[in-house]
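Exercise 3.2. Students should predict the tertiary structure of the chain below and write it as structure tokens, then compare their answer with the key that follows.

Predict this chain's 3D structure.
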Amino acid sequence: MRHPRDWRWWTVWLVVLLIAGQYAMLTWIAPRHVLRLAQRLLGGALLIDRARLALPLTTRFSGIRFVHNSAQSAFTIQQAVIRPRLLLPSLKMISLASIELDRPFLRITRTRTGTTVWPVLSHADGHGAAGAWQLRADTVRVTDGTIEWIDETVEPPFHAVFDRMSFVVGPVTWPGGGEQTSFAVRGAILGRAEDPAPVYCSGWWALTAGDLQASCQLEPLPLALFDPYFQGPPTIRVYGATISSTSQWTARANALEARIQLELGHLDEGDLSVHGRTIVDVKRLATADDPTIKGEVMLTGTLDSPEQWSGDFIPGNQGAQRLAAQFLERNVKALKVALGPKRVGVRIGAGSEAAAQDIEAAAQGIREALEMLTTPVVYDVSIATQPPLVSPRAPWVPTPDSEFMLDL
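Answer key:
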């Protein structure tokens, strides 16, 4: 006599089928759908090697890169982890709990013609579906990122890397950005063979309102890194000099006020010269008791119009006072200081003991505020020692001096 099949076997097979179906959904069907959706939303600008899903709907993308990466511009991400919160297709809105980017790499080049080449963010036809959607992420976190900057407008070409970048920001809304967003970032600036110079920043911004509050610190950076920019009349030889800074940036309703404390160190040698004739001997400005030059630049202007900013330089020690006195003796009352592609006019002021104490107190306050970000990190300088992907250019040609340029 045949015994009826135990109903428990049917239950076991049903559970097995459910698990197999879920596995197929998470490892084959859903990842392919997510890949197609992500690439469609980004207008075909990205290539993604692999996508994986895990409960509860956490998505991991691996091998992300822009379609049009080149020797001059590139963007890649080793891995991105996205944790969704809400998807409303009818409103074309995506809400995410977090976005985590592991080892992103960005290369930017300024060509010999002065054109800045960024990675191509959109499809070749200029259209994409991402612009129709609104994206909000509570937190965006970057780990071990790298930004590489190559400037071919100078000879030899300038090459620097912002390496080991850790970045936390949130909440982030795109497009938009009306709400207050907090951020914290740390990393290091590397040259070809120079020691890394750690950088730390934290604060918040509200773009729509034009509000900003930020504190930043740059530890000693060898000025020899910028040697390509010091060639030509006037010629600057910096030898082993370094620059470090702290700064406080505040904006309300798009009105900016900034205090930037600067310190030049390792002034064993150095001069400012024209056609081999020394104009300023930097090492003579410092004293044995204080072998540095310290000062503060105060900037004011409209936050979104750096070309309209103006500034004042206040000497912070005796070395800076001697430097300011030499400029004033030559009737140089203001300088044009490069700030990215723009130049900002900075007036030269007289120093005092009270001003020096105020500058030192401001710098110390910023260092204490950023103390949690300044834990030592071991940096790999191998990327900075690689030869830049650039080509030779014509010799440097000086441009006419502007009204604030140093007139020698």
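Discussion points: The chain has three helices and 21 strands. Residues 30 and 287 are 69 Å apart (CA to CA).
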